[in-house]
Each structure stands twice: as structure tokens, then as C-alpha cells.
């Protein structure tokens, strides 16, 4: 079976990790059991470009149980768990193309390997697979029934393609499902980003000025968790509503030019480019720590930092590069500006990926049943969101109230007032 991974001998460690994650993914396990019996994806060639983690491995097991002919490649050069990749190949018979730390050429060779699978369904985290198919394999766009997109950045990119009339097959925005972004983006990114920063630096957060750039769902989660660790949270935003929300959530809100002067730790979660840039590096305090938890490594202008620093000391600690500025200040950049939660930690915890990947699995099942989806970005059917929420609640042993017939009727009527 063709594959490209770091070392197949890592498989036994990877298997333990996959099984450990599986314990926290009961919703996906239920779907897997049903897929095993019903085979809704039988014979469908699927290519997935996702972070190769223990949680993704459990999604791959589920899609394979459903009958899919699968290939998995990495959606980021630094996020692959090499032991998990090895176990997927050795223990689960799934073709994987991913090596932690792979260079850009290898990253794209791996995407090409996923395309060689000749997929009819694709799954993306950041839209690199869909974008490569459109740019370099346009002859394939007719055969692709549907693609699923996992992350905010990918959905933004795909909406831009759709707006330009460039999108040639339908895509379902899994990220936009409520059971995905309310939980995964907020609690998953919130916790795992703090985890990544701490694993990389071992700094105490209490009492530090922690600058969160961007107050989307990831920024909200990150600010909440940094606050919980005793940091003084500063939020920077460009959207007035989000800025107002951050202020009323109790955080300081100011432009990056002001935050740059007082921040001890900076973390970008905006999805945009050069959010921390030359003018900010010039203002930062000696010892400032700069990280990114957005999908792409574009949020910190590292090119300019490299040009303006007088020297760089690489790996002063694993995942930490020290940039020594001409005036003697040191700025510490984590994981080369790549998403810190997956580079230095293990990404979102399994319990939250349980819901995101349950949505992915159920949406794949829905996608193969559709014959006339338009080539645009679609929402996840509301029923899938409801089903996943119900299953997750049940797995947590939580029961909720139901409307009485009287309440139901009241909500549908307009006659009764004061
Ligand atoms: N994205 C963020 N965290 C992840 C994880 N643990 N597995 C797969 N994709 C992720």
C-alpha cells in the first residue's frame, strides 16, 4: 500500500494515542458502528487534507468503516503526529501522506498524492486541496460531487472563490455548523492555544499582558482561557461589534500599535495577513513572546522581522526562535508563526473534535446522497447539527426539558399578549 510517512515503527505509540482519543469521541464511535453496518460511503473515493492527529485518525476509521476508499494528507506541514500517521497505515490500512516538519515541496507532493486517488468527495482544512484541484487539475472538477471544509479560513477562501465564479463544485461549510464552531473554535482553540504557548515556553500567564488579536470564536475562547489563567487580556479588533463585545466581556480593547507597547505575550487568531507587522516589532518590549493560532502562518510578518532583526538564534528552546533587534531587545517567535496549538501541543482535545468530526462524517453521508447540489458554499443541514448536539448531550449524561404541548402552541401563536 503506497504511503509517505516518517517511520512505520512508530505505529504502536500512535495506536495507543488513537485509542485514547477514541474514548473521548463517543458520538463519532456511534456513527462508526452504524457506518460499519450500513456502508453509506461504499466504494466512494475520498481524499482528505486534514491535520493528521489522533482525532483525525478516528474520523478516518469512521469513513473507512462506511466503505470509503480513503487517502489522507496533511493540511499543515507542522501539525502531523508521526506516530498516528504510522498507525493509520500499519494498523488501520489507510494510506497517509504526511510527515511532521515536511518542506513546502513535500507538502504539495502529498496533496498531489491525495489527488492521485481520483476522489469524488474531498475534505479540507484550509482549502489547499480544493484550491490545488482547481488550479492544477481543472479536468477533475466535474467528477467531484462535493467537498467539506473544516475551518473558518478555508470557508472564507472558498466563499471568495465562489464570489469570483471560480468554484466548480459544491462545498459544505462544516465549520459553520453550530456544533462545530461554538465548541471547537471556542473551547478547542482556547484551551489548546494556551497549552501550546505553555508547552513551548513554560511561562507563567498570571499577571502577564496577553494580547489576543481577533475576537472571532477562536479569539473569544483564547481570551476567556487566558483570563482564567490570571492574565490581563487585551483584545485588538477591526470589527466594531466584536470590539464592543470584547469590551463588555471585560477585556481592554485597543489598536495593535498601543497593545504592542505593553504586551508580554501576543497571539494572533484573525485569519488575516500581517496583523503583527514591522511597526509593532519596533514598539514591543524586550522579551515579548509572539505566537499565531490562525490557520496559516501569515499573521505575523516574519519576513520583515527577519530582515530587520540584527540576528536570529534558532531553537533557543524547541519551538522558540529569538530575534535580536538592533537596539538589543529580544523578541521570541513561537513555532515560526505556524499554528501554535497544533505545532507545540496536540490541537483541540478529542472531546470537542468528537462533534466537529461527527458533523464531517454525517455531512459526507449526506453529500453522497445529493445529485444536484449547486457549485457554491452550502450550509450543513440543520438536522445534522441537532442530531450531533443530542448525541453529545446523551454521551455526557445530560438530559433536557421538552416543550409541553401548551408551550409549543404558545410559541406558534400570536394572539396571546399582556
Ligand atoms: N484542528 C484543531 N485541532 C485538531 C485536532 N486535534 N485534530 C484535527 N484537526 C484539528
Written overview of the protein:
This protein is α/β, with parallel strands linked by helices and 418 residues long. Helix content is 46%, strand content 16%. The protein has 17 helices and 15 strands. The strands form 2 sheets. It has an 8-stranded mixed sheet with strand order 9-8-7-10-11-14-13-12, with helices on both faces. The chain has a 7-stranded parallel sheet with strand order 3-2-1-4-5-6-15, sandwiched between helices. Strand 5 (146-149), helix 7 and strand 6 (171-173) form a beta-alpha-beta unit. Helix 1 (11-23) packs across helix 3 (54-65) and helix 2 packs parallel to helix 3. The longest helix is centred in the middle third of the chain and has 24 residues, at 178-201. The protein is globular, with a radius of gyration of 22 Å. The relative contact order is 0.13. The protein binds adenine. Residues 50-51, 53, 55-56, 188, 342, 347-348, 353 line the site of adenine.
Any descriptors?
418 residues, alpha/beta, Rossmann fold, 2 domains, 8-stranded mixed β-sheet, 16% strand, binds adenine
Amino acid at each position: 500500500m503506497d504511503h509517505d510517512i516518517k517511520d512505520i515503527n512508530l505505529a504502536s505509540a500512535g495506536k495507543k494515542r488513537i485509542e485514547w482519543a477514541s474514548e473521548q469521541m463517543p458520538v463519532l464511535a456511534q456513527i462508526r458502528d452504524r457506518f460499519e453496518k450500513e456502508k453509506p460511503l461504499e466504494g466512494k473515493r475520498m481524499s482528505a487534507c486534514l491535520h493528521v492527529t489522533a482525532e483525525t485518525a478516528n474520523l478516518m476509521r469512521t469513513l473507512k468503516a462506511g466503505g470509503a476508499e480513503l487517502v489522507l494528507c496533511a493540511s499543515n506541514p507542522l501539525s502531523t503526529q508521526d506516530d498516528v500517521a504510522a498507525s493509520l497505515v500499519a494498523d488501520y490500512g489507510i494510506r497517509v501522506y504526511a510527515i511532521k516538519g515536511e518542506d513546502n515541496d513535500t507538502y504539495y507532493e502529498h496533496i498531489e498524492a491525495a489527488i492521485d486517488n481520483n476522489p469524488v468527495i474531498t475534505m479540507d482544512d484550509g482549502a489547499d486541496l480544493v484550491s490545488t484541484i482547481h488550479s492544477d487539475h481543472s479536468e477533475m472538477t466535474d467528477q467531484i460531487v462535493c467537498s467539506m471544509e473544516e475551518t473558518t479560513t478555508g470557508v472564507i477562501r472558498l466563499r471568495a472563490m465562489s464570489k469570483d465564479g471560480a468554484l466548480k463544485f459544491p462545498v459544505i461549510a462544516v465549520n459553520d455548523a453550530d456544533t462545530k464552531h461554538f465548541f471547537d473554535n471556542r473551547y478547542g482553540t482556547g484551551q489548546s492555544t494556551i497549552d501550546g504557548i505553555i508547552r513551548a515556553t513554560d511561562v507563567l500567564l498570571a499577571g502577564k499582558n496577553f494580547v489576543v488579536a481577533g475576537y472571532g470564536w477562536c479569539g473569544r475562547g483564547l481570551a476567556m482561557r487566558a483570563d482564567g489563567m490570571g492574565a490581563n487580556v487585551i483584545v485588538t479588533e477591526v470589527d466594531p461589534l466584536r470590539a464592543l463585545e470584547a469590551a463588555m466581556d471585560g477585556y481592554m480593547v485597543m489598536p495593535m500599535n498601543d497593545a504592542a507597547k505593553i504586551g508580554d505575550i501576543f497571539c494572533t487568531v484573525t485569519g488575516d495577513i500581517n496583523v503583527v507587522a514591522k511597526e509593532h516589532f519596533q514598539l514591543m518590549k524586550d522579551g515579548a513572546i509572539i505566537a499565531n493560532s490562525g490557520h496559516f502562518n501569515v499573521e505575523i510578518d516574519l519576513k520583515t522581522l527577519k530582515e530587520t532583526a540584527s540576528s536570529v538564534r534558532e531553537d533557543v528552546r524547541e519551538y522558540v526562535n529569538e530575534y535580536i533587534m538592533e537596539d538589543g531587545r529580544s523578541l521570541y517567535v513561537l513555532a515560526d508563526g505556524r499554528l501554535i496549538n497544533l505545532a507545540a501541543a496536540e490541537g483541540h482535545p478529542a472531546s470537542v473534535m468528537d462533534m466537529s468530526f461527527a458533523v464531517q462524517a454525517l455531512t459526507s453521508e449526506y453529500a453522497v446522497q445529493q445529485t444536484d447540489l449547486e457549485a457554491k458554499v452550502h450550509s450543513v443541514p440543520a438536522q445534522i447539527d441537532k442530531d450531533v448536539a443530542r448525541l453529545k448531550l446523551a454521551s455526557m449524561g445530560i438530559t433536557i426539558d421538552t416543550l409541553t404541548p401548551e408551550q409549543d402552541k404558545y410559541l406558534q401563536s400570536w394572539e396571546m399578549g399582556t
